[in-house]
UniProtKB/TrEMBL annotation:
Residue ranges of domain Chorismate mutase in the record: 4-94
Any single GO BP term: salicylic acid biosynthetic process
PROSITE patterns documented for this protein: CHORISMATE_MUT_2
Name the record gives this protein: Isochorismate pyruvate lyase
Organism: Deinobacterium chartae
Amino acid sequence: MSTDHPPHSLERVRAEIDRLDHEIVRLLGERYRRVLEAARLKAEVLQVAAPERQRPVIARAEARALEVGLPPQVAHAAYAALIAEFVRLEEQVFSAHRDAQEESA
Ligand SMILES: C=C(O[C@@H]1C=C(C(=O)O)C=C[C@H]1O)C(=O)O
């Protein structure tokens, strides 16, 4: 279904939303794998949250939202939630790594 032929029924709109969600989650999976790579490149848990990096990432998402006609507060809320969860997962990578080191010591 292309955007040249907008869907007219609720069913068709929902089918298009489902198709987009499929792609969005695929992209989130790619992003998650890069976040794990970033975690592996950090020397200590204090580097995980990196607020100085979070701010421009969220600002860029808001600016991109404006370009594509998405209310920027939606991009802000989505990215703040995503990053909070990614930070939590990165912290788990660190504690698992620390536990493994302690066990082998
Ligand atoms: C991926 C990183 O780690 C965390 C996750 C971020 C993200 O999901 O964009 C950004 C900064 C950090 O809070 C990073 O430092 O780049």
